[in-house]
Design goal:
Elements lengths: L1 H20 L3 H27 L7 H9 L2 E6 L4 H9 L1 H7 L4 E6 L3 H9 L5 E5 L2 H7 L4 E7 L6 E5 L15 E4 L4 H12 L8 E4 L2 H9 L5 E5 L2 H9 L2 E5 L8 E6 H6 L1 H20 L1 H12 L3 H10 L9 H16 L19
Parallel strand pairs: 1-2, 6-7, 6-8
Antiparallel strand pairs: 3-10, 4-10, 5-8, 5-9
Helix pairs in contact: 1-2, 4-12, 5-12, 6-7, 10-14, 13-14
Pfam families: NMT1
Main location: periplasm
Organism: Brasilonema bromeliae SPC951
Length: about 350
């Protein structure tokens, strides 16, 4: 009866407004739309409530929406923990227990993975310290959710075993290969500063690890700044000498990152992900030989070199501290100083507070 009465009143009001509309067109049109739409919504709400009064706060309905989630994970083969997590399927099983699924997507590097996160096709991933800085500067809505204390021994500036270069100071005027905007780009800047040189004192050769390896072995560059496991592979294959690693120069940390809206909408799922990541991280820390054997066919790097890399890195899935945030801010400020970063950013603005 209530619905029928409202419908009758709507019809009457519309007829009345239509007659006035011919005299005052523009003003009546707005009123007609607003009143008609408003009353129609009332009828719709009344009809919905009349037929399904329990749907508004139904626990079953909410559980189905949460349970049907597809979690999109971005990973790189050389990123040990997420690669191993995918292989073990423990996260897939944990998400499936509540009715959800996991989709894994491989990326060649951190920046394209974060671009996919910006597009909404990746919810969670892991990169080195530099990609999230450039992503934040580009307006990517990401959040730091944990860090991995990978360690300064896991990256270095190397030269060929017969090179006359013995120190960082001797890199002046030399061609140095590294990936632009990478963690080793930051290492190069800090190493030069420690030797009293400027970034402009060298000739940067911006190359991917594969291209840099070819240039290094071919003698087309004088030095190469690279991270593990490519560092260990080059040392094992060529006998390359280290002129400095990142000790006292750069923290060389990795970061677990998530799409901001995913963190806000599914904090419980994010915690499940971090729990499973932490379990695999602890397994990897205790089993470097097994990790090396697992990665060998995927990376095409000998297990012996991979085991060296695994043993000299640090492990952990840790909440960001003020010290870690401050150091990451220093990395960002350095990239802005050498004009690789287009604007200043504040790292602390995108740090998740839930992982405490």
């Amino acid at each position: 009866m209530l619905i029928q009465l409202l419908k009758t009143r709507i019809l009457g009001i519309r007829q009345l407004l239509y007659s006035n509309f011919r005299q005052r067109k523009s003003r009546s049109l707005s009123v007609l739309f607003a009143v008609g739409l408003g009353l129609s919504l009332v009828v719709s709400a009344c009809s919905s409530n009349a037929t399904k009064p329990e749907a508004v706060n139904s626990p079953t309905s909410k559980q189905n929406v949460t349970g049907s989630i597809t979690v999109n994970i971005g990973f790189q083969k050389a990123a040990t923990i997420l690669n191993a997590l995918k292989s073990k399927s423990s996260l897939d099983q944990a998400i499936a227990a509540s009715g959800g699924t996991v989709k894994w997507t491989e990326f060649p590097a951190g920046l394209p993975m974060l671009e996919a996160m910006n597009a909404g096709s990746v919810d969670f991933g892991y990169t080195g310290e530099s990609p999230p800085i450039f992503a934040q500067a580009a307006g990517n809505p990401l959040v730091y959710v944990a860090y991995d204390p990978w360690g300064p021994k896991a990256e270095a500036i190397i030269v060929q075993k017969n090179s006359p270069i013995k120190s960082v100071a001797e890199l002046k005027g030399k061609k140095v290969a590294f990936a632009k905007g990478s963690n080793t780009n930051y290492l190069v800047v800090k190493a030069l500063e420690s030797a009293g040189l400027k970034y402009s004192d060298i000739k940067p050769a911006f190359l991917t690890p594969a291209d840099a390896r070819a240039a290094f072995e071919g003698g087309n560059v004088d030095a190469w700044a690279i991270w593990d496991p490519y560092l260990a592979a080059a040392q094992e294959a060529t006998g390359a000498r280290t002129i400095t690693d990142a000790t006292n120069l750069a923290p060389n940390r990795g970061y677990y990152l998530a799409r901001k809206s995913f963190v806000e909408e599914h904090p419980d799922v994010l915690k499940t992900i971090l729990d499973e990541v932490s379990k695999v991280d602890k397994w990897a820390a205790s089993n470097p030989a097994e990790v090396a054997k697992f990665l060998e066919p995927q990376l095409g790097i000998k297990a012996a070199a991979l085991e060296v890399a695994e043993k000299r890195r640090k492990y952990g899935v840790l909440p960001l501290t003020e010290e870690v945030i401050a150091k990451q801010q220093e990395v960002a400020d350095t990239f802005q100083k050498i004009k690789l970063l287009p604007k200043q950013i504040q790292v602390k603005e995108i740090v998740w507070k839930g992982n405490k």
